[in-house]
Design brief:
Helix content is 33%, strand content 27%. By secondary structure, the chain is of the alpha+beta class. Helix 2 packs antiparallel against helix 3.
């Protein structure tokens, strides 16, 4: 566990050192350049990339069996994901309120939600406009847009979603397994 924690801590430090301040990136909304500019993004590489990294790390550590075991455990929950595309979280500002929206490479959320509902027994409320609420714990709001499943803690954050959220990751998903980038220039001066 300490070794894994050390590896992830090192990855985060490298990601931070290489990408703390960047030029602004604009989201593409409904086919047009929009004004949504992230103040931070969290990038998670594709499952293919992460699986290869996990295989390498466990092989180097002499425990390739651990990677195989984790793949078997996760295969049931991850079968609805597109293994070739990344996931991430986009943090923008609504006036001064932070707005976090995550996205997952799930082409058909109905299958995933049905599987999770069956496994964990939570209820789903249909709120209209394609927005669903998972009624479990504090709850979460979901919306399918194209090949992406977006999620957040507030339904109002599911408006004006980008058509291509990967464009807002600005290539981080190709360079790192897990990365965070802050766009300091997108933070209003008064904050």
């Amino acid at each position: 566990i300490r070794r894994i924690y050390g590896v992830f801590s090192g990855l985060l430090l490298v990601a931070a050192a290489h990408g703390v301040v960047s030029e602004p990136v604009e989201a593409q909304q409904d086919g047009q350049q929009g004004a949504v500019k992230p103040v931070a993004v969290l990038s998670v590489a594709s499952l293919e990339h992460l699986t290869a990294d996990l295989g390498y790390l466990t092989a180097v550590a002499g425990r390739a069996d651990v990677a195989v075991g984790l793949q078997v455990l996760g295969s049931g929950l991850l079968q609805d994901f597109d293994r070739t595309r990344p996931a991430g979280v986009l943090i923008t500002l609504d006036d001064v309120e932070p707005r976090g929206v995550g996205f997952l490479p799930v082409p058909d959320s109905d299958e995933l939600i049905g599987r999770l509902k069956q496994r964990f027994g939570f209820e789903i409320d249909e709120l209209g406009n394609g927005i669903r609420k998972i009624c479990w714990g504090k709850g979460a709001y979901l919306k399918q847009k194209g090949e992406w499943l977006f999620f957040t803690d507030q339904a109002k954050h599911l408006s004006d979603l980008p058509n291509d959220p990967v464009a807002m990751l600005d290539g981080l998903e190709q360079q790192y397994g897990l990365a965070v980038r802050f766009y300091v220039s997108n933070i209003p001066a008064g904050l």
